[in-house]
Automatic annotation (TrEMBL):
Pfam short name (any one): tRNA-synt_2b
Aminoacyl-transfer RNA synthetases class-II family profile domain mapped to chain residues: 150-405
Similarity remark: Belongs to the class-II aminoacyl-tRNA synthetase family.
Binding residues annotated for substrate, in chain numbering: 100, 217, 264-268, 371-375
GO molecular function, one term: glycine-tRNA ligase activity
Highest taxon of the lineage: Bacteria
Reaction catalysis annotation: tRNA(Gly) + glycine + ATP = glycyl-tRNA(Gly) + AMP + diphosphate
Annotated keywords: Aminoacyl-tRNA synthetase, ATP-binding, Cytoplasm, Ligase, Nucleotide-binding, Protein biosynthesis
Binding-site residues, ATP: 249-251, 259-264, 331-332, 375-378
Protein name: Glycine--tRNA ligase
SUPFAM superfamilies: Class II aaRS ABD-related, Class II aaRS and biotin synthetases
Enzyme Commission number, as recorded: 6.1.1.14
Native source organism of the sequence: Prevotella illustrans
Encoding gene per record: glyQS
Quaternary state and interactors: Homodimer.
Length: 520
């Protein structure tokens, strides 16, 4: 099945099973805005809990913060967002659709890369075990041609983005004969800049209203509070401040479901350190953050680093952690060495000293900063895309199952009475009441067959199902079913908590991650 079709099924599945709904759907929705349903909010909260605890529990020198969405407008002048927070915009005159010029070009680069991979895949199938991929890449004329085109385009694109040079970006689109996917034409406008911040007014009267912005990132709330946290917490460098919160960007092209939205949630940590040590910490956080992703067991081959060639105005190093989505490798997290730009700018614009006094050096200075920033919604989507599976069973039937990491699953356990007789529903409810204080446990009404109830829980990713049958009142045992293998076993009711809790707790993943971190 084409990956595009798989992605459409995932989007449909999200609505059908209570993960994500189009916002304001009864009014025909609002473009690129989504609401998280009853299962989606649980999955999202579990992701946030895993991130938060990995930061503040596993690192004694990292603390939390929850800053306001509204900030003094000078904040965004100091940070550079008022003057430099722009994307290159281009329109197709025939379809009347608007696109990011850089995304169009990046998609074209990806097409060359896909062509190379297809040629390699065909050769591997043709030559079998004797296939030498490295040699084939060097000798194949088709691969060579595609690589030369990809590399030449990549070099031009990197040069154009340094300015950015808007005329060069337009020329690249023309030279590559990039067409609008809707109209099929190459009738493009010139490229122009577009500021992404949402503006509003604060004040009781029109005359006295002050122009403010919905924050486009959560980082600035940390920077303006850095000294408050440092002094009240008596923090010594290096130390970090972690925050989870909403951010807002008026995206030119909001697409690919919850991957790119206008209202989204970020998990960011700013790590403050001595000037000159930032690259050591940049490399450290690259490794630690990738380990955080890989600890979930979604396959190391599905992750890769992507180093930035065009650095933001505040950075001296930047890399992305990309995950293999159905629509290609895409960024889910960024690690940036922001130098002292943000703190120095806020000191300059506020006129107040926010220097750190180093008791060991007996001097004051503005710390450097290394940032880790991950989109909750993108992480949510990567988990769903990796977990969605359509499976053919040995008996000829099929099932849709979400093989979610067990610690992230919205519901950890569902308890089913086999039917309504002999007090089985009451006994099932007793089991739910015992387990629900330890992990999210649901009661499954016996109005449907046990098979249908299993399928329903497979579709929402529930790792364990417990069935109370007519033998249970006699032997105090139940049937425990495992989601991924569909294996069933009889276990004592008293054993349920220990069997399930060890596998579904965030703590189990944190312990695994903690061991990895010790290596760094």
């Amino acid at each position: 099945m084409a990956q595009e079709d798989v992605f459409k099924k995932i989007v449909s599945h999200c609505k059908e099973y209570g993960f994500v709904f189009p916002s304001s759907e009864i009014y025909d929705g609002l473009a690129a805005v989504y609401d998280y349903g009853q299962n989606g909010v649980e999955l999202k909260n579990n992701i946030k809990q895993y991130w938060w605890q990995s930061m503040v529990l596993l690192h004694s020198n990292i603390v939390g913060l929850d800053a306001a969405i509204f900030m003094h407008p000078t904040t965004w002048k100091a940070s550079g967002h008022v003057d430099a927070f722009n994307d290159p915009l281009i329109d197709n005159r025939d379809s009347k659709k608007r696109y990011r010029a850089d995304v169009l070009i990046e998609d074209q680069i990806a097409k060359y890369e896909e062509k190379i991979q297809k040629e390699v895949a065909k050769a591997r199938k043709r030559f079998g075990d004797s296939f030498d991929e490295e040699k084939y890449m060097e000798t194949s004329e088709r691969v060579k041609e595609a690589r030369e085109k990809r590399d030449a385009l990549h070099a031009r694109y990197a040069e154009a983005m340094q300015g950015p040079d808007l005329e060069m970006l337009k020329q690249i689109i023309v030279d590559e004969e990039i067409i609008d996917p809707i109209s099929g034409t190459k009738n493009w406008t010139d490229v122009r800049q577009f500021n992404l911040m949402f503006a509003t007014e604060m004040g009781a009267s029109a005359d006295g209203a002050m122009k403010v912005y919905l924050r486009p990132e959560t980082a600035q709330g940390i920077f303006v509070n850095y000294l408050n946290v440092q002094k009240t917490g008596r923090m010594k460098l290096p130390f970090g401040i972690a925050q989870i919160g909403k951010a807002f960007r008026n995206e030119i092209v909001a697409r690919q479901f919850v991957f790119r939205m206008r209202e989204f949630e970020q998990m960011e940590m700013q790590f403050f350190c001595q000037p000159g040590t930032e690259m050591k910490w940049f490399e450290y956080w690259k490794r630690v953050r990738r380990a955080w992703h890989e600890a979930l067991g979604m396959g190391t081959e599905n992750y890769r680093y992507h180093d930035h060639e065009k650095l933001a105005h505040y950075a001296n190093a930047a890399t992305d952690i990309e995950f293999k989505m159905p629509f290609g490798f895409k960024e889910v997290e960024g690690i940036h060495s922001r130098t002292d730009f943000d703190l120095a700018q806020h000191e300059k614009f506020s006129g107040k000293s926010i220097k750190y006094f180093d008791p060991e050096k007996n001097e004051s200075y503005v710390p450097y900063d290394v940032e880790t920033s991950i989109g909750v919604d993108r992480m949510f989507l990567s988990v769903l895309c990796h977990s969605y599976c359509e499976e053919q069973l040995e008996n000829g039937e099929s099932r849709v199952v979400l093989r979610l990491p067990e610690a992230l699953a919205p519901v950890k356990c569902a308890v089913f009475p086999l039917d309504k007789k002999d007090g089985l529903p009451e006994l099932a409810e007793q089991i739910v009441d015992e387990l629900k204080f330890h992990f999210n446990t649901h009661y499954g009404d016996p109005k449907d067959s046990i098979g249908k109830r299993y399928r329903r829980q497979d579709a929402v990713g529930t790792p364990f199902c417990v069935t109370v049958d007519h033998e249970t009142p006699k032997d105090h045992k139940v049937t425990l079913r495992y989601r991924d293998t569909m294996k069933q076993e009889r276990v004592d009711i008293s054993q349920l908590r220990s069997i399930i809790e060890d596998r579904v707790s965030i703590t189990s993943v944190l312990k695994k991650l903690g061991e990895e971190i010790k290596k760094y």
